[in-house]
């Protein structure tokens, strides 16, 4: 007897009744229920109409709290990183020539190191060049919009270089108060008054931040001239290359009686320029140039980018030696 043919619909019903398909269907239903439960748990609660949503607190950028980075465990970790990792790398890549540390021999207490700014290599170079005891009790004013942009770079910047967030586009009362509090607590500060790296090696006008903090905390400003870091790590590059660098420390400075922060900032920049002249010539010639107001400025010629870069690469010729020098 021949079997009766079945339709496609009947065949589909028979297949669905098989035990294997039932178990697969049950598992799929359970998985779907679990997914819906997870979404319901993780989904933000609904808010009735007319109720204002609370803004999420932004814990990065200028609002990042760096107090933990000055705890004892964090300081120990930073010293180990500084001496065990950062200094050997800086010595290998930058081969720094450090001058003028004898000018700090009579300084007691915290100071504000104010340096010109060419490269990201300036920070590790300065951290390893600053002598003790200031080196191990140092904080750095770093751009909040660069070093504190997310939850990874923020703690790394605070831990590794001891940075605090500073806003470049406006005056931050929080950053000022924190800096003054740390200076009064015997912490020294490293700051780059230009506010940003130089694109062509020439300096930008110094802002009055270092001058203001010095006037209100009593901590003297130590001008510092840095040269060569734009060859180690130029702006816009991510891979460093070996080059020779120079760091020259100047004598501590403080605001004169009645001198405002802007005028003091100009004097700080002039002191850094004199240190650059000293590095290019010698101490005596730099003093003669300063006395006759012939110190080369840090801001370079008023020309196009290529002309400024060319002028920066030109070799400085020292004066013809004569004896005796008068």
TrEMBL record:
One of its GO terms (biological process) is phosphatidic acid biosynthetic process. One of its GO terms (molecular function) is 1-acylglycerol-3-phosphate O-acyltransferase activity. Keywords: Acyltransferase, Transferase. It holds the Pfam family Acyltransferase. GO terms for cellular component: plasma membrane. Residues 111-229 form the Phospholipid/glycerol acyltransferase domain. InterPro entries: Plipid/glycerol_acylTrfase. SMART domains: PlsC (SM00563). This is Unannotated protein. It comes from freshwater metagenome.
């Amino acid at each position: 007897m021949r079997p009766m043919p079945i339709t496609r619909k009947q065949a589909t019903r028979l297949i669905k009744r098989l035990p294997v398909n039932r178990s697969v269907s049950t598992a799929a239903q359970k998985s779907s229920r679990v997914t819906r439960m997870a979404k319901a748990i993780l989904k933000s609660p609904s808010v009735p109409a007319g109720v204002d949503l609370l803004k999420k607190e932004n814990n990065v950028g200028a609002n990042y709290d760096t107090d933990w980075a000055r705890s004892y465990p964090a300081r120990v970790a930073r010293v180990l990183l500084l001496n065990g990792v950062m200094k050997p790398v800086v010595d290998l890549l930058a081969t720094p020539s450090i001058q003028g540390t004898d000018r700090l021999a009579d300084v007691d207490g915290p100071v504000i190191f104010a340096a010109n700014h060419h490269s990201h290599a300036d920070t590790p170079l300065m951290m390893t060049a600053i002598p003790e005891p200031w080196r191990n009790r140092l904080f750095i004013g770093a751009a909040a919009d660069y070093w504190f942009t997310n939850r990874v770079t923020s703690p790394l910047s605070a831990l590794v270089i001891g940075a605090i967030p500073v806003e470049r586009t406006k005056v931050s009362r929080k950053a000022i108060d924190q800096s003054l509090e740390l200076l009064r607590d015997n912490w020294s500060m490293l700051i780059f008054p230009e506010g940003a790296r130089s694109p062509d090696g020439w300096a930008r006008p110094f802002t009055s931040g270092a001058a203001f903090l010095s006037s209100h905390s009593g901590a003297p400003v130590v001008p510092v001239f840095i040269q060569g870091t734009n060859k180690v790590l130029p702006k816009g590059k991510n891979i460093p290359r070996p080059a020779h660098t120079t760091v020259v420390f100047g004598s501590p400075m403080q605001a004169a009686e009645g001198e405002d922060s802007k005028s003091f900032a100009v004097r700080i920049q002039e002191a850094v320029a004199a240190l650059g002249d000293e590095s290019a010539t010698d101490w005596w010639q730099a003093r003669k140039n300063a006395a006759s107001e012939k110190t080369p400025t840090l801001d370079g010629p008023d020309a196009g980018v290529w002309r400024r870069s060319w002028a920066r690469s030109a070799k400085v010729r020292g004066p013809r030696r004569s004896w005796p020098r008068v």
